[in-house]
Specification:
222 residues; mainly alpha
């Protein structure tokens, strides 16, 4: 990829609104979770990071439905049919995702790649007004990798999605547990590197683990 082209585009976007990671908003969502929600997120996250590649078609359909729901509700606001817009959008994208599963995986892997490189950008303390450029690099790489090594793209988005849920649940539990509540809040709110590292490093580790588990199960079945 031509780095000079990326810098040129970034320079032209100096006056655009800054898109960055709002850690305060993130922590607000964490503190709003109860014990039941935290344990549910951890459970679903564990399923994704350990067995995501085996049920990725179901996960793709769920993600597609959720995205369709959001898009449909947003469009429905303009015509005063928000609920039906969400329902229709959900159904349309779920139905479309099943026969176009490889393209859907490509989109989800692109989103995952963008989150990872954007997180690295944030953790390194680089200029937040250019975070979108860092995320763009990961999005392009994540999208293209699905057409080169499809299994890696599946592992990427399933493990990242699982870690987002698991990390959110674990942070919520630490917040609910009084002895660790203040300490974890201080770490999350004052150390920019913490959330990206806590998300990205385990994601990479679980990608290798899930890949190894997949090879082991396929080898055992022969």
């Amino acid at each position: 990829m031509d780095c000079s082209a990326i810098l040129a585009v970034a320079d032209a976007a100096k006056n655009q609104p800054v898109i960055t990671f709002d850690v305060n908003l993130f922590w607000k969502h964490i503190t709003s979770l109860g014990l039941r929600e935290a344990l549910t997120l951890i459970a679903f996250g564990a399923v994704c990071v350990f067995y995501g590649s085996r049920i990725f078609t179901i996960l793709v359909s769920i993600c597609a439905g959720f995205i369709g729901l959001l898009i449909g509700m947003e469009l429905g606001k303009r015509g005063n049919f928000e609920v039906w817009g969400g329902v229709i959008g959900c159904i349309v994208l779920v139905v479309a995702a099943v026969p176009l599963v490889k393209w859907a995986v490509s989109v989800l892997a692109a989103i995952a790649g963008g989150i990872i490189t954007g997180g690295i950008w944030h953790a390194c303390g680089l200029p937040p007004q250019y975070m979108w450029a860092g995320a763009l690099v990961g999005a392009v790489a994540g999208g293209m990798i699905s057409f080169i090594v499809f299994n890696v793209a599946v592992l990427l988005f399933t493990c990242l999605a699982g870690m987002v849920m698991a990390m959110t649940g674990i942070l919520a539990l630490l917040h609910l547990y009084e002895p660790t509540s203040k300490g974890i809040a201080d770490i999350v709110l004052t150390h920019a590197w913490f959330v990206p590292v806590a998300l990205i490093v385990p994601t990479i580790g679980f990608m290798f683990l899930q890949n190894k588990m997949g090879k082991g199960s396929s080898g055992g079945g022969e």
